């Protein structure tokens, strides 16, 4: 009887061993990624030293909001514009005196964790502000859509745009309106993203020059995202920064109403590629590298699952925070602190929060919906409580 029991026990142990082996082999065969089974379990500490080159009309205001929120929630320091400035010296090349807290410090021993306001990239000067282990990233957009957005947003600001009735008209004969020597305000009218990276936006698109500049960007930046694939960009950014899901969930900020969006003719779209040839080369190159990096990091199944996780969480927070998931016209936004700055012919939209939100929920929702200028002023007051607050007219009652 005892020998029978022992035999049964051994058989049971052998069966368990084979079952475990079968599960192990099945998992390997199916390529199960256990990080997806516990999607918010981060194995390593999050990246906290970050420089984001905020390009123009590329969904960069939404990323700035993400970085501001992360900085505040993790008690980090942010390199903010000095005094009454709202940018870090743009459109001039960045120098350290544009940062609050560094103007009187000749030794520049103080470093910040995050740098994300508009500036024209100047690597030697940025290095003086940011730690050696800083993660550098930026974002680009298809130049056709980037220039269309710039034309509407800077219609009354850029001399090159002021007299053209439409972007189609401008592109039909751009040199009729554009003069590179007139004003730095015209940087928005030609190769604006190239200019943001610190290069000459009026340089000929000579391929030796282009390749040299592209190699420099690759050397300086760890990642260049693509605004046309914003969700995919956030999935890859989250992995690179080792952040939690809620850290990169966002509401779209600084978006226009569809009534102010122009649909360019096919001829105009082709003309953009020639007029903004440097931007086009920049975009084409880093669009390729973006997808190469994304596919090297995630399988198609992983990408699909992580995109769905991101979008589901966005839907949850939208339902939790907002009266209406669709952004509203300025005149329909109740809270002045949530009314976005208006520029040119663009109709910039914003959000109304739901009433009756609890203190913690209200704190989260307010910061997700807060427009760029108000958010910058808020961060400035937190970081420099003894200095005169930023004067943001939209916040005045």
Automatic annotation (TrEMBL):
BP GO terms, sorted: glycolipid biosynthetic process; glycoprotein biosynthetic process
Membrane topology: Single-pass type II membrane protein
Annotated GO CC locations: Golgi membrane
Record family assignment: Belongs to the galactose-3-O-sulfotransferase family.
InterPro entries: Gal-3-0_sulfotransfrase, P-loop_NTPase
Record keywords, A-Z: Glycoprotein, Golgi apparatus, Membrane, Signal-anchor, Transferase, Transmembrane, Transmembrane helix
Keyword field contains Glycoprotein: yes
Keyword field contains Membrane: yes
Top-level division of the source organism's lineage: Eukaryota
Protein's cellular compartments: Golgi apparatus membrane
Main location: Golgi
Listed name of the protein: Galactose-3-O-sulfotransferase 2
Membrane-traversing stretches: 12-32
Molecular function terms, GO-annotated: galactosylceramide sulfotransferase activity
């Amino acid at each position: 009887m005892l020998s029978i029991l022992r035999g049964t026990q051994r058989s049971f142990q052998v069966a368990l061993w084979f079952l475990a082996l079968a599960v192990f082999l099945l998992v390997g065969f199916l390529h199960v990624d256990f990080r997806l089974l516990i999607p918010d379990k981060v194995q390593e500490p999050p990246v906290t030293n970050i420089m984001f080159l905020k390009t123009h009309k590329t969904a960069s205001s939404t990323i700035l909001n993400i970085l501001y929120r992360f900085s505040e929630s993790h008690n980090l320091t942010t390199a903010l514009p000095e005094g009454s400035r709202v940018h870090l010296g743009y459109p001039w090349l960045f120098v350290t005196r544009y940062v609050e807290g560094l103007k009187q410090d000749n030794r520049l021993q103080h470093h910040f964790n995050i740098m994300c306001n508009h500036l024209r990239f100047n690597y030697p000067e940025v290095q003086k502000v940011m730690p050696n282990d800083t993660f550098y990233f930026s974002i680009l957009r298809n130049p056709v859509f980037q220039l269309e957005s710039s034309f509407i947003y800077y219609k009354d600001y850029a001399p090159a745009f002021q007299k053209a009735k439409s972007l189609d008209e401008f592109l039909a004969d751009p040199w009729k309106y554009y003069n590179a020597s007139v004003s730095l305000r015209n940087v928005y009218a030609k190769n604006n993203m190239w200019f943001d990276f610190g290069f000459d936006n009026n340089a000929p698109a000579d391929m030796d020059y282009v390749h040299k500049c592209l190699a420099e960007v690759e050397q300086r930046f760890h990642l260049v995202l693509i605004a046309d694939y914003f969700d995919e960009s956030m999935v890859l950014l989250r992995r690179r920064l080792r952040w939690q899901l809620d850290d990169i969930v966002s509401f779209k900020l600084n978006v226009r109403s569809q009534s102010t969006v122009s649909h360019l003719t096919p001829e105009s779209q082709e003309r953009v590629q020639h007029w903004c040839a440097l931007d086009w080369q920049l975009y084409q190159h880093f669009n390729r590298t973006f997808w190469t990096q994304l596919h090297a990091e995630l399988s198609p199944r992983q990408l699909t699952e992580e995109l769905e996780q991101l979008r589901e969480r966005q839907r949850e927070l939208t339902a939790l925070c907002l009266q209406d998931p669709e952004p509203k016209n300025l005149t329909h936004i109740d809270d002045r602190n949530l009314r976005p700055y208006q520029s040119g012919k663009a109709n910039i939209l914003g959000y109304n929060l739901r009433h009756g939100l609890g203190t913690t929920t209200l704190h989260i929702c307010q910061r997700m919906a807060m427009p760029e200028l108000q958010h910058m002023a808020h961060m400035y007051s937190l970081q420099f409580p003894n200095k005169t607050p930023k004067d943001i007219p939209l916040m005045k009652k």
